[in-house]
User: Fold these one by one.
Assistant:
Number 1:
Amino acid sequence: MLCSAGDVLEDDPVGRLKVFVYELPSKYNKKILQKDPRCLTHMFAAEIYMHRFLLSSPVRTLNPEEADWFYTPVYTTCDLTPNGLPLPFKSPRMMRSAIQLISSNWPYWNRTEGADHFFVVPHDFGACFHYQEEKAIERGILPLLQRATLVQTFGQQNHVCLKESSITIPPYAPPQKMQAHLIPERTPRSIFVYFRGLFYDVGNDPEGGYYARGARAAVWENFKDNPLFDISTEHPTTYYEDMQRAVFCLCPLGWAPWSPRLVEAVIFGCIPVIIADDIVLPFADAIPWEEIGVFVAEKDVPNLDTILTSIPSDLILRKQRLLANPSMKQAMLFPQPAQPGDAFHQVLNGLARKLPHDKSIYLKSGEKILNWTAGPVGDLKPW
């Protein structure tokens, strides 16, 4: 019988794969973090914690000859603006430099041109390395990563920045911070629909057509005065507690599947209302999103009130019961130290499910597939 999503949440990857971690000069990782420790708490911090986790993980092997997968620890999202937003402009040069290093110092990259390597690229549009969608599409995935497996927070079907073989992960949300706000499980859910956040990107997109693909602006325009909807740009100190009092939490993700709101909704048992056409959600082969969430097409946002009030109460209770499952919550978090079934383990499970590698990944003598000079000229400058 085929496993459905949810059946594999508690799989244990230990013994199913071995990972070799390249030792790179600290300028690719630790020194970058030393320069800006804020990287440890922003939503793309998974690249740092995944590195730390693998260094002490039982799946790590020090013998590359027996490795199933090779991991290159490069912190490409740790160049932050004063406001704490990652700037990806140096990332392509940095990643190219790291790949040149591993390909000239070890023989493993050259055997497959990266087809048995994985990289954590948790930026807005993953390895397209740009925060504006138009520019990201124009750039495409860094050519040298075309054969590698990418672990990324961005996930949208039929998008140039998502490869079919990618593993989509949740954004990093500080586990201790959320656990500190847990309230008694039996607290009544007295809020019907809850959302806190921006509806318009006033600086760049005041009309709201681009930001979250217009989904947030549509929510505000249609439901700002609806008593069933507790929505606001204000972010109260009781934010986490309020989520635990809500039946539905809006996740108008648009092009941003890395929104921490999705993680928060699952952790606090608030049914996520996912407004994002063609989205690929974190660990979709393990988390039964269709069963725990409600999917609303972007064009149907004006009918949100009708859609949500017409969901039968027994279906709401079923979703809430599934969300109460600790393994569902565990899979969305990157705790320190790591715990069985957490997001680290789900990444490893995803890699284990891709094994054994097909023999076709190994290049024949003299064969080359990747073009080292492809991509924008600026990317070719030394880092």
Number 2:
Amino acid sequence: MNSEDIKAIQELLAVPQQIVIIPHKNPDGDAIGSTLGLWHYLTNSGLSATIIAPNDYPKFLKWMPGNEHILNFERHNSQAKEKLAEASLIFTLDFNHLGRTGQMAPLLESSEAKFVMIDHHQAPSDYAVVTYSDVSKSSTCEMVYEFIAYLGGKDHISAEIANCLYTGIMTDTGSFKFSSTTSRTHRIVADLIDKGAQNTEIHHQIYDTNSPSRLHLLGCALKNMVILEEYSTAYITLSQEELDRYGYNKGDTEGFVNYGLTLDGIIFAVIFIENKEEGIIKISFRSTGNFSVNEFARTHFEGGGHTNAAGGKSDDTLSETVQRFRSHLKNYEEQLLIQSS
């Protein structure tokens, strides 16, 4: 953030505001961790703030301190709409296009509130009066830590804030193994531990609370994996029937796509998940090195994200989507082979 943005934020927070904080639809650890971290900081500072999540999120994120105060737009619709109508200042975290909020988008687009964006994805839109966007950051949680520091509040980071921000940084860096993890990331994490983040317990809550059905679904996903050595690519498919057979719950497929990248010689991994309710195929893309899945997703599957992690969707059937995906790979053969060599 530059000095002009910092001053603008300080002026906004110096007067009474009705603040709403919003993560993206289908929020992940970084989205929930960053919104809760910011919520704790603002409310601890005596400000009025409410988090509204566009929809539900995985059970393994609901242990975080303050989770019980989050309004689910789908479940608490009238209350959420009331808060949005009253809002004078809206923080949008971990996304940079209002369309990423699903059913909430029309209300946000027509809102007279001032917006502040904190996000680390590429190609931000320009709806905010203050846009804090930095694609080099590991996570939005890392940016919220910096945001608090810019406001002079680093010494006021509580254990609750530390636990929330640590969670988002840990999940968005793949437990600190992704290339977005910098020395600065580690210094921030060290400070969060000093301030009360329970790193071992956080890891347990996120990764070691699986249900038997989730592990059975993982077995199904790995059995479905297809390896295309000629393109240094591996992909997984999961049909709605398979999800139903193994009692799928929201968040159960989190991280499945990364298994493809554990294979020697594979630099491009994809998972295709059928969603009959929405009538789409949800797609997650991952890569290593310089192969841009952000560009691939934007070009072919109405998506985007980061260089090494992106999402997309398809309105075709599962088999048609996979066939279309495979047909595109020949156009990237040289890039994929260069990266894998």
